[in-house]
Structure formats: structure tokens, C-alpha cells
TrEMBL record:
Pfam (any one): GARS_A
Annotated metabolic or biological route of this protein: Purine metabolism; IMP biosynthesis via de novo pathway; N(1)-(5-phospho-D-ribosyl)glycinamide from 5-phospho-alpha-D-ribose 1-diphosphate: step 2/2
Entry EC number(s): 6.3.4.13
SMART domains xref list: GARS_A, GARS_C
Reaction(s) this enzyme catalyzes, per UniProt: 5-phospho-beta-D-ribosylamine + glycine + ATP = N(1)-(5-phospho-beta-D-ribosyl)glycinamide + ADP + phosphate + H(+)
Protein's recorded name: Phosphoribosylamine--glycine ligase
Similarity annotation: Belongs to the GARS family.
Keyword annotations: ATP-binding, Ligase, Manganese, Metal-binding, Nucleotide-binding, Purine biosynthesis
SUPFAM superfamilies: Glutathione synthetase ATP-binding domain-like (SSF56059), PreATP-grasp domain (SSF52440), Rudiment single hybrid motif (SSF51246)
Domain ATP-grasp: 105-311
Length: 421
């Protein structure tokens, strides 16, 4: 098979790495890819829907795998389905559960899926009156896609007012801020759940934990994610059963009933609260950097799984995971998630002797015979181990050998679970 992966992040490099191990695969193309993907696949320098469709009309591809949410929101999957090209990912209508938080909240309310209490506003003055009646912290979200930056946890009424002004008046997120959601703050531990879905059936991955804030101790602004561990030792089978029965299955059934069957990865962010697991948000794609850890311990041929999701045969598909733990530590450019510089030489990538370390590239680019930084999140260093601790020791050892000007990474990935085996 010839496979095209859409995207340029660590997630896409990890998917390519795993897809490459499939006996079914002849060639892998990545649009646009990065310096890492160019070592195992052919990078194609195209990004827009029109460019991708134009390229696919000229090149025969047996399977397209869509990474980023923007393409799902823009209906790339629908367009490829019309052309008869097998594609892994949800249609625009099914992906609305990610690209419209208003839709997702309304859907959860109507279907009885546990989530934070909320109100939606398209009028600034009404939103400002409402916050006077609430206690703090209070969560304020722009409804549309905002590159993971559309959520503010306001600790006071002044902060809440300023946030509403920024979103609804100054329009810092553009049209994504036409509506805001104001919701109850949930206390608890946050985990990432992924499920393969074929429109009707679903198979859950083991639980993952991301680390969203830029600095150690969960300080500083939110990022796309600074590191992950899989599985999460403190999550019980009982909690996973509740998540499957109260969140994943009702969501898939209701989307099917509403005429928008979901094929792809359903990825809810879940808060484990005192009153049970609650959905923070839904994503309609593989997580980044969750995927980097997941691909290290997925045992089954991923191409087989992706095809069974597309063909609606997931029920017959067996999925196994190595009995190991995995971690991914993200190295980012200085300044990220705010402004950062690109073009710094990355050193040390060839010095790593440990075969169990796999480095997935994100914002990197080849430049003559060097590799240079080309984004906020630059590399994801992954390792596996008998347990999380073992994988973390190896990953942090490898990190000491890697360098670029301004490199920053969290030193405490997985630390909240250090007391667990
Ligand atoms: P989201 O983009 O909706 O995932 O929100 C980004 C981050 O904000 C989440 O990963 C949580 O850490 C935090 N967050 C969002 N909603 C809530 C909530 N209702 N209560 C507590 N934290 C939240
Ligand atoms: N790591 C979180 C996400 O992919 O949205």
C-alpha cells in the first residue's frame, strides 16, 4: 500500500514510524512533514486542501491518514470520500464535536454525558452579568478552534471581565470567539482517553496523561502538550469502564443516531473528579504528544486497525499493547508557547546509543547537512520501560545529549505518579 499522512508534527512522525513497520506498506508520503519524517518517508511540500486534493488526483494513494484538527474542520475527509480515496478520520459533521465547543457542550447536555455545568453567550453584556453570579475559579472558553489557547481559568471577576473583553471585543481568536462558554471549574486529575471508532464499534487505548502547562509544577501558560506517559498507573479498570460506558459508547451511538457517524479517533480530555469522570473537551483526532507514547507500545499493525475503522470491521479487529510503559518528553524553543525563534542548530541527535530511545521530530527542518529548529515544539524524546519510572530515567538521560540554543523541557513529566509502581 501507498500511504499519505497529513501533518508535520511529532504525532505524524510517530504515526509514520509505526505505519512503516507494517508489512502492508510499500511507500509513505507526508504532507508537509519535517526533518524526522524525511528520514523514513517522502515529504511532499503541500498544506492546503486544494494542494492535497490536486496531488492526490495525480498520485495513486491507498490510504490517507489525517493528523491535524484544522483539516477535519475544513472537511478534507468528506472531500476525499467523494473522490473514493480511503481516508482515516471523521467527516466535518462528526468532527464538530471538536471544532465547536458550543456543539459539544449542547450534545453532552442532551445525551447525558458527564461534563462541567455551563452557559453559552454571544452577547458580551449578558456574559458580564452572568459572571457576577458565579464563584471563582471560573472557566471561559472561545467556542471555535483557537490553537489550544482559547481557554482561560479566571481566578477573579476582574480577570473574567478582561478575558471576555479579549475574546468578544478585541477578538483575539477572531471568529472562534463569536460565542463563549462559561463553565464550572472541575477539580481532579486530568487524563487523555483515546478510542478507535468505526462509526458503531469502539476500542479504547490505555489511558494517557499529558502535561499541558509550559513549566514544572503545572505552572505558566497552556501549551499543545509538553510530555506524556502511557499507561497512567493510578487510573483503575473501574474508571476506564465508566469512561467507556458513560462517555465513549453514548457519544458514538448518539453521533450515529444524529446522522454523523464517527470514524477515527475519539479523544476526550477527562477530569477524574470526586463525583466521577467528566469530559473537559472532545478531540476528534490523535493527541500530540499522546500519540508519540502510544505508538511505542502499540503491538498490533496500525494499518490493519485504521482500515478496519474505515470499513466498519473494528469488531473483528484484535488490538494488543506491549506490556510496557512509555513516555514522551517534549523539547521546545525558548519562548514557546509565546513568541519564539526558529533556525537554531540541533546537536546531539546522533550521540544517543540506547536503542530504546526514539526521537520524534515536530518543528524541525533539514538545512544543508544540519537539522534546525522550525517550530515551538521541536522534538519528542520517547522511551519505554517495565514501568513509567524506568522509561523516564532513560528519556531524561538521552535528553542531556541533545542541544539547541534556548532548549526548554519539563523536568517533572510523570512525577505526580512517582509513588506508583
Ligand atoms: P480545553 O482546550 O477545553 O482542553 O482546555 C484546556 C485546558 O484547560 C484543559 O486541558 C484543562 O487543563 C483546563 N480546563 C478546561 N476546562 C476546564 C474545567 N471545566 N475545569 C478545570 N480545568 C479546565
Ligand atoms: N495533547 C493534547 C492534544 O493533542 O490536544
Amino acid at each position: 500500500m501507498d500511504i499519505l499522512i497529513i501533518g508535520s508534527g511529532g504525532r505524524e512522525h510517530a504515526l509514520a514510524w509505526k505505519i512503516q513497520q507494517s508489512s502492508k506498506v510499500k511507500s509513505i508520503f507526508i504532507a508537509p512533514g519535517n526533518a524526522g519524517t524525511s528520514q523514513i518517508a517522502k515529504n511532499i511540500d503541500i498544506t492546503t486542501t486544494e494542494e492535497i486534493i490536486g496531488w492526490l488526483k495525480k498520485n495513486h494513494i491507498d490510504l490517507v491518514v489525517v493528523g491535524p484538527d484544522e483539516h477535519l474542520a475544513n472537511g478534507l475527509v468528506d472531500k476525499l470520500e467523494i473522490l473514493g480515496i480511503p481516508v482515516f478520520g471523521p467527516t466535518k459533521m462528526a468532527a464538530e464535536i471538536e471544532w465547536s465547543k458550543t456543539f459539544a457542550k449542547q450534545f453532552m447536555k442532551e445525551e447525558g454525558i458527564p461534563t462541567a455545568m455551563y452557559e453559552v453567550f454571544d452577547d458580551l453584556e449578558k456574559a458580564k452579568s452572568y459572571i457576577k453570579t458565579r464563584s471563582f475559579p471560573l472557566v471561559i472558553k472561545a467556542s471555535g478552534l483557537a490553537l489550544g489557547k482559547g481557554v482561560t481559568i479566571a481566578n477573579s471577576i476582574n480577570e473574567a471581565r478582561e478575558t471576555l473583553d479579549e475574546i468578544m471585543l478585541t477578538k483575539v481568536f477572531g471568529k472562534a470567539g463569536d460565542e463563549v462558554i462559561i463553565e464550572e471549574y472541575l477539580y481532579g486529575k486530568e487524563i487523555s482517553i483515546h478510542a478507535f471508532c468505526d462509526g458503531i464499534n469502539t476500542i479504547l487505548f490505555p489511558p494517557a496523561q499529558d502535561h499541558k502547562r509550559i513549566f514544572d509544577g503545572d505552572k505558566g501558560p497552556n501549551t499543545g502538550g509538553m510530555g506524556t506517559i502511557v499507561p497512567v498507573p493510578y487510573v483503575t479498570q473501574g474508571q476506564m469502564k465508566i469512561i467507556k460506558e458513560k462517555v465513549i459508547i453514548p457519544t458514538i451511538s448518539a453521533l450515529k443516531r444524529r446522522g454523523r457517524p464517527f470514524k477515527g479517533i475519539l479523544f476526550p480530555g477527562i477530569m477524574l473528579t470526586k463525583s466521577g469522570p467528566k469530559v473537559i473537551e472532545f478531540n476528534a483526532r490523535f493527541g500530540d504528544p499522546e500519540t508519540q507514547s502510544y505508538m511505542r507500545i502499540l503491538e498490533t499493525d496500525i494499518v490493519e486497525i485504521l482500515i478496519s475503522c474505515i470499513n466498519g470491521n473494528l469488531k473483528e479487529q484484535k488490538i494488543t499493547w506491549l506490556p510496557r510503559s512509555a513516555c514522551c518528553i517534549v523539547c521546545a524553543s525558548s519562548g514557546y508557547p509565546k513568541e519564539y525563534q526558529k533556525g537554531k542548530t540541533i546537536g546531539g541527535l546522533d550521540n544517543i546509543q540506547n536503542d530504546d530511545i526514539v526521537i520524534f521530530h515536530a518543528g524541525t527542518k533539514p538545512d544543508k547537512n544540519r537539522i534546525i529548529t522550525n517550530g515551538g515544539r521541536v522534538l519528542g524524546v520517547t522511551a519505554t520501560g517495565e514501568n513509567i519510572q524506568e522509561s523516564l530515567v532513560d528519556a531524561y538521560k538521552a535528553l542531556e545529549l541533545i542541544s539547541f540554543e534556548g532548549i526548554q523541557y519539563r523536568r517533572d513529566i510523570g512525577q505526580t505518579i512517582t509513588d506508583c509502581p
